[in-house]
Amino acid sequence: MTNYSKRLLLIDANSVIHRSFHALPPFTAPDGSPTGAIYGVASILLKLWREDKPDYVAALFDRPEPTFRDKKYAEYKAHRPPAPDILISQLIEMHNLFHVFGVATFEKPGFEADDLIATLATRFKEENDLQVVVLTGDRDTLQLIEGNKVVVQTFNKGVSDTTIYDEQAVIDKYGLPPKTIIDYKALSGDSSDNIKGVPGVGPKTATELLKKFGSVEGIYENLSSDPKLEKRFGPFRKEAELSKELVILEKNVPMGDIKLEDLAIHNDEMEIIGYFEKKGFSTLMKRFVTKEIETKEDPKPKSIQGRMF
Question: Residue 281 falls within a domain, yes or no?
């Protein structure tokens, strides 16, 4: 996937947690607390640590407070039902799981996890010999992709089947470069976020228009030269511009002076085993211990994570 020797993994925590919650049965710990989503995320982390061996990791969380998007558009995500208590308790507990795995966590009132991801990806993409990988269950972050320097890993089915999108993969799927995905969503809308887009414009039309005009702005700059275009898009300029504002990720969230070294993984295998025992994750503990034995027999472990997982 890459010629880079170091990898920074940015996890869209809420997205991955929701994916696990809906993909797995409602497991419970010995104390009766719900653990289905926690189990799913722990399984994902084990798989990533073994197969991809990231060197630096951060998990980014949404906050319950309104974001700047809600202030611009009251209907933003308004159709989504509130999270059930069984999921909320696991969202809170998830910080402890990430801590056990040695993963730094971040959240910021007024911003979404995707904005924090965009900020850190922008901050560290200039690091030499470092690839930035975004792990998410949705595709809002496709706009951040640059070559194979910044890529997005998304889930297809469940929590084990994923696809990695670099710049060429986005072009192959959408017919557009990653930076134009913003305009694509602004025109065709995004039902998952309740972004309306331009009425009557679907993915195919949006793609054709963007291949011709390059952007939402390009379309409106050329309305006067095309009466049909003006009739169709003229009345909906405010809607298109608002949709684009909502889709664009904020790359300058004030997150303090975070250095790459602050995101290095620091974990203790006994702490992980203890956490698995506490939560009743016997299957994960077997996977962990088996891999621990295998990797200790490897005379040339690639990294600390390689030795542990």
Answer: no
